[in-house]
Design a protein that fits this description.
This protein has 274 residues and is an all-beta fold. It has one helix and 17 strands.
């Protein structure tokens, strides 16, 4: 698993860096676990454009990922490690002993043929899902629930992980990928290890067309707009646009928008680093 560099046969190949896909073991997804996915092009149900700069791109099938890992006590064998066009991480196909097949996020170091499990009294090994009350302190985890039984919502993108640093009563203290230190109920589940494909952030598209394949359209710079369209628009000649701010006028650099009375504030011990 690493990056592939190209010979500069064309200008776009000169700086292009892509994954070498060495960790991928299958090219076709499991048919019973894929769902048809239609592209909206940024339009809502009445046809109005509500999200700009979206549309086009290659057609994708949605793989149903098991974020809950609720099949406790039933061992599963890793059959394949696959590419998923809908996320930055790799996914792993599991064959459970009771005959069911499911996809999970593949952690770093997961191998085909390995056995994984979830639930209580499970060994804290890569790919296993345990309750935060049973995971040893200092362990690196990913795929973390925020509420018991909700399914994983945190530390799911390529290369990300959180670290379990302490336990205080019914809460576990985790250092999140953003640097934030927060408390989560020990009855929530997390998976051991870090998410696969850690080199994803080093990839270079090489050309604008590759963004189009991903369904991302060209974005207009605010300073190139008129004052009616954006607070940074207008001015004579090439104006700087003033202080960077959003289309609705909210300052962009370090302006705090979080409510001071938000209920989850009491669970956050330390805010993230800028």
């Amino acid at each position: 698993m690493g990056l592939r560099k190209y010979r500069p046969l064309t200008p776009s190949l000169r700086y292009k860096l892509t994954s070498d896909f060495a960790d991928i073991t299958a090219s076709k997804p499991e048919k019973s676990l894929i769902v048809k996915q239609t592209s909206s092009g940024g339009r809502n149900n009445s046809g109005k454009m509500t999200m700009r700069y979206l549309g086009g791109g290659h057609k994708r099938a949605l793989r149903e990922i098991d974020f809950k890992r609720e099949k406790d006590g039933i061992p599963a064998t890793v059959k394949t490690i696959e590419y998923d066009p809908n996320r930055s991480a790799r996914i792993a196909l599991l064959f459970y002993n009771d005959g069911e097949k499911r996809y999970i996020l593949a952690p770093q170091g997961l191998k085909v043929g390995q056995t994984v499990q979830s639930g209580k009294q499970v060994a804290p090994e890569i790919g296993n899902t345990l309750f935060l009350s049973e995971i040893p302190l200092g362990t690196v985890v990913h795929n973390i629930e925020l509420r018991p039984g909700q399914g994983a919502v945190m530390a799911r993108s390529a290369g990300s992980y959180a670290q379990l640093s302490a336990r205080e009563g019914k809460y576990a203290v985790l250092k999140m990928p953003s640097g934030e230190v927060r408390m989560i109920l020990t009855t929530c589940k997390a998976t051991i290890g870090a998410v696969s494909n850690p080199d994803h952030n080093l990839e270079v598209h090489g050309k604008a067309g590759r963004k189009r394949w991903l369904g991302i359209r060209p974005r207009t710079r605010p300073v190139a707009m008129n004052p009616v369209d954006h607070p940074m628009g207008g001015g004579e000649g090439r104006a700087s646009g003033g202080h960077p701010r959003s289309r609705k006028g909210i300052p962009a650099k370090g302006f705090k928008t979080r409510y001071k009375s938000k209920s989850s504030n009491k669970h956050i011990i330390e805010r993230r680093k800028k």
